[in-house]
Structures are given as structure tokens and as C-alpha cells.
Amino acid sequence: MSEQAAGRVVLVTGAAGGMGAGHARALAADGWSVVLADVADATPVADEIRAAGGTASAHRLDVTAPEAWAALVADVRATYGALHGLVNNAGVSRRLRFMDTTPEVWRQVMAINADGPFYGIQACAPLMRDSGGGSIVNISSIAGQIGYFSPSYSTSKWALRGLTKSAAGELASWGIRVNSVHPGLVETPLLAGSDGFVSSAVASIPFGRMGRPDEVTAVVAFLLGEGSSYMSGGELTVDGALVSNGTYHRILDEMEGTL
Ligand SMILES: NC(=O)c1ccc[n+]([C@@H]2O[C@H](COP(=O)([O-])OP(=O)(O)OC[C@H]3O[C@@H](n4cnc5c(N)ncnc54)[C@H](O)[C@@H]3O)[C@@H](O)[C@H]2O)c1
User: Fold this and answer.
1) Which three-class secondary structure state does DSSP give residue 25?
2) 139-195: per-residue pLDDT in tens?
3) Residue 256 in domain
4) What is the pLDDT of residue 195?
5) Residue 211: is it exposed, middle or buried by C-beta count within 10 angstroms (0-12/13-18/19+)?
6) Which residue in 65, 227, 19 sits closest to 135, CA to CA?
7) Where's the Ketoreductase domain (predicted)?
8) Residue 249 domain flag
9) For a tag site, which of 38, 82, 143, 182 has the least CB within 10 Å?
């Protein structure tokens, strides 16, 4: 447990499962009081954290509903009296190609992945300001750094990158830092049912493997903590060197012996 995190409060969305649950567990183990928010039931994860000696509470939140955000932040203010961190982690992916993406799918993905974090930042920032400032971490994706075949997912994750930079400028005077994290392929239920896609994608990753959830958690914890105190409006890519190297790794593999 770090002394730095003790007594500090962080809200993690999408904390009932996947990487969000991992972030919540690790941050609690580090001393953060963790507010777990999810449209699904995050009680089992909060119970687990408390059983391990941590501080946590589970809350139902649909990130697409501004009024639900307002109610949750009022609850956090009443219960904890402060908020120092927000991890906008909740997200959905619909792997539909451009011409197959219906208006309904487009709106659903944009609502959860882009509107949700915007509402969350608006709702949480005043309490963070009143708490002496804090750090917001937006979980984007490498699909928010390159063109990705699913237009709803890629556009929503690019939007989150822009939202990060806009909020970083606006909220600096309140002592609030805002950064984005861009994971590559990470082993979670989000990728369930896409084995062929995953094995083929791994062949393009210079590290030759998917990322582990804890490798993303470590970067989230860094951005929430004092070690990144002069960092805002930035982006950290956690992808085994995929985006920085394009497809050269795969091309060289396929041309082995012919160069
Ligand atoms: N897994 C990957 O390879 C990968 C790569 C890059 C980025 N990401 C991003 O990381 C984040 C977490 O991904 P994951 O793989 O852990 O996903 P996941 O599907 O395992 O978990 C997502 C969580 O978000 C919750 N959620 C969905 N809609 C919600 C809503 N409207 N309101 C509140 N909560 C909602 C779900 O209930 C779930 O608990 C997402 O933003 C995702 O886009 C994942």
C-alpha cells in the first residue's frame, strides 16, 4: 500500500468485470478508496476488495445517462466527502465493418464510449476541484490512434482522445489532469468470440503476444498518481509496439529469408 494513495478516492466505470475490475482491485490494494460503477452488478468485486481489507462500494451506473452521473457524484460526496480520481473505462466494441454499421449500433457505441466519459468528466470535475484537484484517465484504444475497420469503435475512441485534450486545458486551473491510455489487444471478455481475429492480429504485434490487463492497470495507476504530476493532455500507448511499427513486423516475418 502506498502512503500517497491512502485516503484518496477514485471512481472507476465498467468496474464489474474485465480491465475495470482489475483496475479497481489494484487501486484498492494500493490504498485508494474505490467507487465501482457499472451498468452490471459490481457488488462481487467490491465485496472481494473489502474482504481483502480495502475500501470499496458498488454502484449501478449507465454512463450514457447524465442524471445518473449527477446522482452518483452526490452519493460519493455524501459518503466519501471527496473525489481525486476518475477512470473512464466503461466501453463497448461492435466489430462491424463500415457498411454493416447501422445507425443504432453507431449511436449505442458513441453514447457509451464518447458521450459517457464527457458526462462523467462534467459531473465529477466540480467535486474533484473541491477535493483539491485530481486526475482523470480516459481509456481509449489504439483504434483511437489509427483507422480501425469498425467505424463506431474507432470514431468513439478518437473522440475520447480529443475530449482528453480539450478537458486537460479547461480543467488545469482546477488542478485536474486529464490523460488517455491506448491499449492494444488485451486479453479480456471484450475479445470473446473473436479467436481468429485475435490470432491473426497477434502476428502483427512485435511483442508476439496480447497484453495482460495488469500491464494496462500499471499505466492507469501511474497516471492517477503523483509520479505524473506534470502530465496532462497526454496519451500513453500500451500495445507491444504495434502502432509505432505499423505492419513492418508482419511483413518481415512473411518475407523471412527473401530480403
Ligand atoms: N480488451 C481490449 O483488448 C481493449 C483494447 C483497447 C481498449 N480497450 C478498452 O478498455 C476498456 C475496458 O475494456 P474491457 O476489455 O475490460 O471490456 P469488458 O467488456 O470486459 O468490460 C467493459 C465493462 O463496461 C461495462 N459497461 C458497458 N456499458 C456500460 C454502460 N453503458 N455504463 C456503465 N458500464 C458499462 C460492462 O458492464 C463491463 O463491465 C473499454 O473502454 C475498451 O474499449 C480494451
Assistant:
1) helix
2) 999 999 999 999 999 999 999 999 999 999 999 999 999 999 999 999 887 676 677
3) no
4) 75
5) buried
6) 227
7) 8-177
8) no
9) 82
73: domain range? 9-188+211-241
Q: Which CATH number characterizes residue 134's domain? A: 3.40.50.720
Residue 67 is predicted with a pLDDT of 98
Measured from the Cα of 17, ligand 1's closest atom is 39
Neighbours of 205 (CB within 10 A): 19
Question: Percent of the chain beyond pLDDT 70?
Answer: 97
Contacts of 259 (CB under 8 A, 6+ apart): 252
For 10-20, what is the mean pLDDT? Answer: 98
- Number of domains observed in the structure of the chain: 1
- Dist. CA 99 → ligand 1 center (Å): 24
The amino acid sitting at 197 is F
Grid coordinates of 18: 474485465
77 lies in a domain? yes
In a domain, 170, yes or no: yes
Contact 15, 36 (CB under 8 A): yes
Distance, CA 14 to ligand 1 centroid (Å)? Answer: 6
Position 70, amino acid? A
